[in-house]
Amino acid sequence: MKRRQLIQSTLAGAVAAALPGGAAAALKAISNVQGDLAAVTGSGAQISLEAAAVRELGESLRGMLLLPGNAGYDESRRVLNMAIDRHPALIIQPSGAGDISTAINFARERELLLAVKCGGHSWTGKSTCEGGMQIDLSSFRHTRVDPAARRAYVAGGSLLGELDYESMAQGLITTAGTVSHTGVAGLTLGGGFGRLARRFGLALDNVVSLDIVNADGQLRHASADENPELYWALRGGGGNFGVVTAFEFALHPMARDVVAGEVIIPIGQARQVLEFYADYAAAAPDDLYLDLVMSSPQGTTDGVALLHACYSGPPQQAEKVLGPLRKAGRPIADTLATTDYVAAQRSQDVTDARVTGEYVKSGFVSDIPAQLVTNLVDGFGRREDTGTTIVFQHAGGAINRVAPDATAFSHRDAMATMLGFASWPMAASGEDPARRLKEYWLDLEPFTTGWYSNEVADESNQTISRNYQINFDRLLAVKNEYDPTNLFRLNANISSTV
Q1: Contact in structure between 78 and 128 (CB atoms under 8 Å)
Q2: Which residue, 74, 101, 162, 475, is the most exposed by fewest CB within 10 angstroms?
């Protein structure tokens, strides 16, 4: 064993010396384990990982093992929300399902706290962890499209933009969120809203099959015919059951050109915009996706109420469908125009240097009654200087025409998802910057039924259980079978009872 380690260490050093800076430093992480690592279990107990075991783990991988201080470690551990600052004891960047299985076995045998990161869009930071293991899928990305079969085959760490780009190149598409650098896995397993969801269903409604490494380290295929209960649970049960290594999506023909953009109205007209949206969004055709945003940037007293639209229907009907949006208030800007769908999907990508912290709340609404409008307008007007944003993300259409127990995602009666965001500069100090949103949300929450599990924040396990509604008991049975020790707990967690 010592001879093999010596040879491998010598080879690693020779190869590392020939590589440019960052790559060389990352490769040396395999052999330069300096000592035992302090770590934590899923239950929070402090443990020590022996240096020899960590070194053995690194040597067994085709992908990378990153430790604190290694090149790439800080980039990997961070998520999009810069308010989250956690430090895993070790990070695995797998090259494929074999590495994922090895990492899961290592974590399970030591009962390590385990986080799984795809695109890093977890608002609450559940794709990273303090003192545990993070599996970072950023090096495991690929999309292949079969135009004849109308299928897309997507590696587990892929981002939505790649799925959009490759499928649209063949004149085909599926629902894939609204921000191109979102992870396919995180979005899809929890639901998967997007600009085409009203037309083609949620992302999870378009999943034909999945490959997944469960808590026992075994790779399984899940479809309607193979492991059907696991297939059912994965479509809405989030990351509770393992790490998905591959998705098979059904694709749909669609013209590349859509009409997309915003009608922007001063925040002083928010009430009439909300009243318009309450009626128009509920009755909209399936090929219209329409969001409403109320936002006021931090440091100002101004703000806007805007309608963000994406119309993918017949071009000759576009003005009839979109024209009423311009009458929702007195617009100060109108950017609605024919555009490339893939460009529309990139239009809300984050391009700043990630210098803000954020906190989010969400809830499904089946309608927007007058009292909710009043609470929204009055509460927004009382806000303090916290960078508050309210978003209604359009649902309905094809989403509503699926039975609540057909997949694990049960919230099929929603007309929209109502979201509240608080954002603040990371340099700010003082009291809880999310306090005002939490107080504001108390007047909004009574109008909601449950919440989107992809944005789970500070909810209790009991609240999470209720949020799965009629599907919870069935989900619990699948959890008990495939993750009896609750290894995968950093999610909208279904705590196993075995």
Answers
A1: yes
A2: 74
The beta strands (E) that lie in 373-464 are given as 388-394, 416-425
DSSP state of 174: -
Which CA distances in Å does 394 have to 200, 318, 418, 441? Answer: 13, 18, 9, 19
Contacts of 334 (CB under 8 A, 6+ apart): 261, 262, 263, 264, 326
Which of 345, 490, 366 is CA-nearest to residue 418?
366
β-sheet bridge partners, residue 362? 419
Contacts of 396 (CB under 8 A, 6+ apart): 198, 281, 282, 284, 414, 415, 416
For 249-290, write each residue's pLDDT tens digit: 999 999 999 999 999 999 999 999 999 999 999 999 999 999
pLDDT band at residue 461 using 50, 70 and 90 as cut-offs: confident
pLDDT in tens, 191-205: 999 999 999 999 999
Better-predicted residue by pLDDT, 28 or 54: 54
**CA-to-CA distance for 93 and 80, rounded, in angstroms?**
18
Question: Among 130, 343, 333, 103, which Cα is nearest to 213's?
Answer: 103
Nearest to 312 by CA among 321, 303, 299, 304: 321
